[in-house]
Amino acid sequence: MTLLLQHWVTAQAARRPGAGALVFKRERLTYEALELASNRLAHLLKDAGCARGDRVCLLTPKSPAAIIAILGVLKADAVYVPLDPGSPLPRLEKMIASCDNRWILASGGRAVGPTLEGLSAAPGFADTHSIGWLGTDAPPAGVTAQFSLADLTAYPSTLPPSANGPRDAAHILFTSGSTGVPKGVVISHASVRAFIEWAVSYFGTAPTDRISGHPPLHFDLSTFDMFGTFAAGAELHLVPPELNLLPHKLAELIRSAELTQWFSVPSVLNYMAKFDVVREGDFPSLRRVLWCGEVFPTPPLMYWMQRVPHATFTNLYGPTEATIASSYYTVPSCPASEDEAIPIGQACGGEQLLVLDDALRPVPPGEVGELYIRGAGLSPGYWRDPAKTQGAFLPYPGGTDPDDRIYRTGDLATVGPDGLVRFLGRADSQIKTRGYRVELGEIETALHVLGTLRECAVVGVASQDFDGVAICCAFTPLPGADVTPASLREALARSLPPYMLPSRWLVFPELPKTTNGKIDRRRLKELFAPETVAVQ
Predict the structure, then answer these.
(1) Residues of the chain by 3-state class (helix, strand, coil), percent to 5
(2) Tens of pLDDT along 21-55?
(3) Is residue 161 part of a domain?
(4) Domain limits for position 422
(5) Angular region, 233: left φ>0, alpha ψ -120 to 50, beta rest
(6) Which residues pair with 372 in a beta bridge?
(7) Segments of 265-382 assigned E as strands
(8) Cα separation, 1 vs 7, whole angstroms
(9) Quick check: 68 and 37 in contact, CB under 8 A?
């Protein structure tokens, strides 16, 4: 049998059926329970007409039901598309329309209800989409579910046969798009397996591990949490989203659950350090602290390493298009200085990091170039967008195999004399904030749609706050328009998720320009940089 992502759970259920697989608040599922429930869901989906390669959108907060849904979709030979229930309705509608799906699995009650009701009320939506309700409560008012959790018991608990292979898509993850339309990154079974197999071996993940599940399911880091846990037969502890802004509660969860591995974006670790919630010698069970998604400032890293000296600390780097992470660097000892930069390190197994010039030639050590990634983790490309795929995934220079490609990250980097790669920043207008990748152009597009601004520009500025990078908006109102930062923010919130809303604002009679007449974004960053700029 070809090994696909879902088969890790099947193998663990056969080997250790009573072992804990999943914990969320007071709910605990064994590998056997997870296997049987997801098998039944797969049979239900197939019986209802879900065919190989169909896209199934998940509109559910992080929960055991969501994990069952992911596994069930994969076992039905379909492709899961995790959506953020907190995103504005117009953005979700674009994603659903883009992936051309007719299946939505939902749960979450009040957290999902208004969104699901809004989707269901759209003209023709009920005629073209089937909703499966996986919550233990009743579906929201105004939502007609074709099936519910109770219907699963009527279906076989055996593993359905699979027609998929390693190169087939496992999921599609939507990222910010500069045109205002989110981009769907296709991720194959083989790409995820390549990283997971390397990571489980490198980190020594074992059945005795208790692993955090902090990122939301529409964030690619969650893929490592889930399948890294299941591959090792360990236990996944889903972190309740409401704890994200409660650093004391996060610390208590690590202690009470006796977690052995913590993995999150750096802003969470930074937040916990700012509130000084980690004690000397804290978290005695914790063996590994991992982060990915953005730069982790050295001062809070030192804070953690000094208080949890028994754990290892690893920086992972990689864009969604290269599947979870492509490089790693385990910090050998606590940095001696707060100014010491942490490398992104060396390539993970099956990957290669290339720092190239404009002609795609390797730059000499110490010189700055653009970072490209080659290897097993590369996505097949963007969902139904060959033009964007060809622009980002290029033939390997000098190669003869058309499948040998490199991905242009848009990041600037350099290779040190030690052979380690160091990240220097973005080469374009894309930033990382709170671990999310954001195209600043998408925010500008949304601002222009409002029709109240003569011109505007959005830039990212390094911040010591929770977000890591502050999104800053400079604007010039149209004559006679009654525009304030508060009104713009309120209007943007109807089309953009909270993490994409600017936190700093400046109004100008005319935006500063360069000598060739373009908006002077460098100057804007200088104006926004002082901490005295008000957050409005």
Answers:
(1) 30, 25, 45
(2) 999 999 999 999 999 999 999 999 999 999 999 99
(3) yes
(4) 351-426
(5) left
(6) 354, 408
(7) 288-291, 312-317, 327-330, 346-347, 351-356, 369-375, 381-382
(8) 9
(9) yes
